[in-house]
Structures are given as C-alpha cells and as structure tokens.
Amino acid sequence: MKNYLCLLAVLFLYATASSQNSLTGNITSKNTNDPISATVYIPQLEKGTVADFDGNYTINNIPDGNYNVVFSSLGYASVSRKLSFTNRETVTENLQLQESAVEMEEVIISTPFHKLQSDNVMKVERVSTDELRASGAVTLAEGINTIAGVNIISTGTGIGKPVIRGLSSNRVLTYAQGVRLENQQFGDEHGLGINEAGIESVEVIKGPASLLYGSDALGGVLYLNPEKFALTGETQGDVSSSYFSNTLGTSTNLGIKTSGKKLKFLARGAYASFSDYKSGADYRVTNSRFNEKDFKAGVQYSGIAFKSTLRYNYNRSNIGIPEEIGVQSRSKDLELPFQEIDNHILSIENTLFFNNSSLDVKAGYLFNDRREFEDEPDVAALRLKLNTFNYDLKYHLPQLGNFETIVGVQGMFQNNKNEGEEILIPDAKTTDVGVLATSHYHLEKVDLQAGVRLDSRKINSEAAGSPMDQDYIEALDKSFTSFTAALGAKMDLVEKFSVRINLASGFRAPNLAELTSEGVHEGTNRYERGNSSLTNEQNFQADLALEYRNEHIEFFANGFYNAVNNYIYLAPTNEIINNTPVYNYLQDNAALYGGEFGFHLHPHPLDWLHLESSFETVTGKLDDNGYLPLSPANSVRNTFRVEFADGNARKASSAFITLENTFDQNNVSIFETRTAGYSLVSAGVESSFTLNKILLKVGLNGTNLTNKQYVSHLSRFKLDNILNMGRSINVNLKVEI
Fold first, then answer.
1. I want to staple 313 with a disulfide (CB 3.0 to 4.6 A). Which of 126, 345, 667, 736 is the partner?
2. What is the maximum span of the chain, computed from C-alpha positions, in angstroms?
3. Which residue has the higher pLDDT, 303 or 250?
4. pLDDT-wise least confident of 224-228, 361-365, 493-497
C-alpha cells in the first residue's frame, strides 16, 4: 500500500507539472453552411463539450500528445480527427459535417485504437441500450438478439446467453467496466448477471478476438460500455420505469451524476420483478418468474496528464427454474427450485499521458456467488464461489510516422470453491498470462492492422468425492499454451465504398466443466462426464466486409469462414445413470460459415424516414458431416422507422414497426429436432418533451403483436415443447433533470 501511495504521489506531481493545451473551433453544415450545435469528444481523455448555437466550442486542460477527436451531431456523419497538442498551445479545428444515413456514429471502445467504425479495420457492431429498451426487450441479453449475427440461448425470460455467429458459452467473452466478466459462464443456464441500467451501449466483435483478449474470445466479444460521467460543471439526475404486460413486470432505475473540473461521480440503482411469462397459447410457464437488484457507482479523477476511474457494480438475481407447466399463477414470489446469484465487480482504470505516449493500467476484482435451492428455500443444494482478479497493462508507444503500436500484458488469477452438498465442478485455481503487440498503419485510402500474442493457462483442481463412488472426480494439473495472430486491412476503393478483410486465429482452453465433470447437471437434466485429455480449441477465421454509404443509403455485406480445430461438444451416449441420460465431452474439427447482409435507406431531404433490412445466416458442421448443436436459424429483419426532431417543447418523436422472419431450422445435430419457422411483429412509438430543464420521455411498444405460438431453436424449453413468450404491451417513462 505504501508503494502504491508513493506511485500516486509521483503521478500527481507529474500531472501538475505538465503542459495544458486547448482545442477550439467552429462547426457548420457542409450542405447549408448553417452552424451546428455538435458534440466534440476526446475518447482517450473522456473530455468533451457541446458547441453553442453559433457552432463555437472550446475544450481546455488537454495534456501533450496525439488524440482522436470526434465531432458528431444528429443527422450528420460523425468525423474523427487525429490532432497533436504540445507546449501549451491552442489548436483550432474548424469543421463542416455532411448529412448522412449513418447518424451520430460513436467511437468504438472495444478495439485498441479508438476509431470511428467507419475508420476501423475490424468490423464491430454497436447499439445503445436506449435502442434496445425502445424495441421492447425485457433484459439486456434479449435486446442484443436484435443485432445481426447475434442470438441468445434462452431459458425463459430470466436467462439469456449470447451466441455470435453460431458460437456461445465460453467461446464468447463478455467485458464489463473494462474488465473480463467471470461468473461461471460455461453453463447454458447461466446468464450474464448484468443489468442494463448504467450500461450506455453494447459492442460486438464477431470473430476471434483472442489477440486482444486471450482465451475464451475465440468466437467473439460482447463489450458493455458503462455510462459516461457528466460533462465538466454539470449535474444530472434521471429516473425511469417500464411496465411489461405479458409478465406483469416492472423495471425501475434511478441515477445521479455530477462533475467538477477534475473530480466526477455517478451512482445508479435498479430493481426489476417479473411473474411467469405467458406463451402465445395463453398458458403461463410455471416458475419462469425472476427478480433483480442492481447498484452501480463510479468516481473519476482527471488531471492534466493522469486519469483514474474506479467503478463498482453489485447485482443480485433470483431466477426460477421451470420444470413443467403446472399451477397457473401471476405471483412474483419465487418457488422451488430457483437460483440466487450475487455478482460483484470492482474495477479501476488508470491512464498516464506522456508527451508522445500513454500507459493504461486496468485491474478488476470479481466475486460470483451462485446458489441453487432445490428442496429447501434456506439451504443451498449447490453453492459455487468464484473469486477472480484480472489485470491489463497496455503501453501506447510514440507514433512513428503512420505507425501506431501497442504492447501489453494481460492476466487472471481465479479460485473456484464449493460450499454446497452437490458438486458441479471441483475446487480449482486458474492462472492466465498473455503478452501481445499490435500495430496500426494509416494511409490516405488504406489502413492496415496486425498483431501477435502468446498465452499460457494453468488449471489445478482438487479431487472431489470418494474414490469408491461413481461420481468421484480426480485431481487435475493441466497447462495450455497458444500463439495467435491477426492481420486486417480496410480499403476505400472508390468514394463512399470500403472493403474490410480480416484474417485472425484464436484459441480457447477447455474449462473446468469440460475437463472434470462427473455427475448430474440439474439445470440441464444431463449426467455430464468430463474429459481430462481435452486440448485447446484453435481456430482461423477469414472475414470479408463490403460497405457503401452516402447521405441517402447504406449497404453492407459481411461474409465469414471459421475453421475450428478440436471443437469441444457434448454428445449423448446410450447410458442412463440415476434415471438421467449420460453425455460425454468429445472433440472434432468443425467449420462455420455464413454472414450478414442488409441496407439502410434514409433519403434526404426526407430526414424523418428510415427503412432498414438485414439478413443473417450461419451453418456449422463437424468433420463427420454432422451439424453443430444450437445453431441459430436463418432470419430476415425489416424495420420501417420515422423520426421527427421539432426543437420546441416536443424535442423529438419516433415510431417503428418491425417484421422478423425466422426460417425453418433443418440443419440440426443428431440429438436435436428440427424447428419450424415463424414471423414476429413488433411496433412502438416514443416522444420526448422539455419543460424548463426537465426532459420527459414517453414510450409505448409491443412485441409479438400477433400473439404467435412459436418455439425458438435456441430455447432450452424446446425439448419440453414449451412455447416462447406471447404478446406483450410495454410502457416506458423517463424523466431527466
């Protein structure tokens, strides 16, 4: 602790002695020359301002260095400029923004060079939680299902696991508060454990991101961006509430944030409660009810050359475990069996800015306490405690010509402990360490990015049970290493038309469940037998993305081929133990291929009109020609949307109608059944009003408006012929001060 305080003192002295620079300028419309009250933001510093009605802006206290500055405004294409600051100078940047179909483009945080998506070498999908909420999503997991190429494995409405291009569970890594989320995510019945309150946006990397994040990012990354702090000198508060007719559910959250010149603070609390959901056949799915409490807080110190952010998140989820259609009830009180899960996330992020470079130091402590109650509401039959400490150090080297380079080291220390009568996985310790280097090369019409990484994972588990018992688990001492690399290019072949090509390798070390399981997994109704001889999954993916955009229309076409060596999967045997079918963990080479295609029509001067359409497809096969399990069906999503910005008492209004067509899923594994296709209709309206300094947002939306009776191929209730949710009419209300 003494050494840490000394380090902070040195950093403070350095910060106070550093140069202070300023950025100023004027922003106008390229079409009309009128001034624009645009947002000006420096992502790496988390500093920003809003231009006044004449388009003028100023940002002070900028440390020496090179930074991306993002200019954005509703109805205009966002612009990123790389600007240099040194020797207490004032930099002037006047800019004209072009009207565009792509509005308010945001900086992508999950990739290392802080680029706008239009400048990024790697294709990343981004959606705000406001958009997800307006679509009628009950939970964050359900909301990301609207992103092309992303699906969820669902257990009712309370549990959803992300699926990216056919890969899920430990093949998809989730990041929250800038640190990797660890919460026993290997099981299909284990949800995210994150509430959407206090989450500003979701970013999805579709494809191997092991170069950036290590093991478990073989299939992709779900990156959850926490809400930003208020701008300097501002204090804000808001309260919002939603009602969902299908589950008689309510969700409420309250937040406040305030910022001075150097110190910023925010806090947010949320509570949600839902009864059993009603299917399209008008029966309620017994014990699919759940409730959730969530609290988030953050404090940030921002000096001239030093920035430190501390965040904390506590989440308590109580989730019913449905077993059969039984007593029909609207009660929200949990019945046996149910899960009770606590998630704690404490993270700290420090950035030190030098004259031409910077150092990022992130650390996170996570505690997951998972309890399952089966026969008694006060005695947990299964209790798993997972303690995780992870760290991430990245040094942004001085820019050398057109080269930007980052080197870093990442790691994790993890301890899993059982405290219940049942043992799902043994007590174990896991240690990760990885080193990486990645570089970006920028030319006028070509951007190149490449990198390499070396990782090592060590797993030590204790023996569990008696050697005389059938479910005895032997002690394990295993090490896994892997080398990964990535190479990508973005090329602007002609004006407004770009091509991205990315080649990347990834890996995933087998998890504890796959290596050591020996017993009944109650949540899945399987007797699972692990395989201690499993080796790394190693993959190579080629990704091609084509994009054309102008002020009226945007087209995109993304295709991929993903070859996975030693793919780990569960296969049924002919054995029955304790009246439960036995499944073994096996390995075989596999391949997945497909893509996403779509367009967005936004004709000017009809700024209020939007027509969006997307198609997604993925096929996964093993080398023996069998199909991979839990592969999402092909689907088409069409949305007609109108938006009006009045600028008076009614600030903005919007309305949408969406038709989602999911096709038959006939490409199933040998132990799955086919799933019929279906079509779902949703619609909604939203308006915002201002009264003095109070902003009121009111929204009304409906999902599955035709009350369609259907079952998703990725629903874990499919085996029991339990339908998905029927019609729901939802009301949203938000007040901002």
1. 345
2. 83
3. 250
4. 493-497
Query: What's the whole-number mean pLDDT along residues 116-135?
Result: 85
Q: State the CB neighbour count (10 A cutoff) for residue 62.
A: 23
- In the chain, the N- to C-terminal Cα span, in Å, equals 40
For residue 616, is pLDDT > 90? yes
Specify the long-range contacts of residues 639-645, CB closer than 8 Å, at least 24 apart: 639/610, 639/611, 639/612, 639/613, 640/610, 640/611, 641/610, 641/611, 641/612, 642/608, 642/609, 642/610, 643/607, 643/608, 643/610, 644/608, 645/74, 645/75
pLDDT at residue 68 tops 80? yes
Identify which has the larger pLDDT, 393 or 2: 393
SS3 4: helix
Select the more confidently predicted residue: 535 or 139.
535
Structure tokens at 697: 């947002």
Whether the CB-CB separation of 93 and 23 falls below 8 Å is answered with yes
What pLDDT does residue 21 have?
87
Closest CA to 700 of 241, 146, 250, 134: 134
Q: What is the pLDDT of residue 8?
A: 44
Determine the distance from the C-alpha atom of residue 48 to the mean position of all C-alpha atoms in its chain, rounded to a whole number.
24
Q: From CA 495, how far away is CA 551, in angstroms rounded?
A: 12
Q: Which two tokens stand for residue 101?
A: 């179909």
Reported in sequence order, the residue ranges of 357-475 that DSSP labels E, i.e. its strands, are 358-373, 382-396, 403-418, 428-442, 446-461
d(CA 289, CA 283): 14
The string of DSSP codes covering 61-118 is EEPSEEEEEEEE-TTB--EEEEEEE-TT-EEE--EEEPB-SS-SPPBPSSSTT--BTT
**Per-residue pLDDT at 7 exceeds 50:** no
**DSSP H or E segment with residue 486:** strand 476-494
**Selection from 718, 630, 634 nearest residue 669 by Cα:** 630
- Among 49, 86, 88, 55, residue whose Cα is nearest residue 70: 49
Q: What is the pLDDT of residues 466-479, one digit of tens each?
A: 888 888 889 999 99
**pLDDT of amino acid 77:** 79
pLDDT tens figures, 197-241: 999 999 999 988 989 998 889 899 999 999 999 988 899 999 999
- Give the residue among 285, 324, 219, 214 at the shortest CA–CA distance from 631: 219
Integer angstrom CA distances of residue 562 from 19, 523, 629, 733:
48, 30, 16, 43
Cis peptide upstream of residue 162 (ω within 30 degrees of 0): no
Q: What is the structure's pLDDT at 572?
A: 85
CA–CA dist 50, 55 (Å, integer): 9
Q: How far apart are CA 111 and CA 217, in angstroms?
A: 13
In percent, how much of the chain has pLDDT > 70?
95
Kind of pairing between the strands at 172-176 and 220-226: parallel
Residue 381 contacts residue 420 (beta carbons within 8 Å): yes
DSSP 414-448: EEEEE-SSS-SS--EEEEEEEEEEEEEEE-SSEEE
Cis peptide before 337 (omega within 30 of 0): yes
Nearest to 125 by CA among 207, 181, 67, 41: 207
Q: Token pair of 696, please?
A: 């009121």
Distance (Å, whole) CA 618 – CA 360:
37
Per-residue pLDDT tens digits for 683-694: 999 999 888 889
373-389 as b/e: b if 16+ CB within 10 A = bbeeeeebebbbbbbbb
What's the rounded Cα separation, in Å, for the pair 510 and 534?
A: 7
- CB neighbourhood size of 687 (10 A): 17
Q: Which residues of 261-278 are buried (b: 16+ CB within 10 A; e: fewer)?
A: eeebbbbbbbbbbbbbbb
Distances (CA, A) of 544 to 416, 503, 555: 40, 9, 14
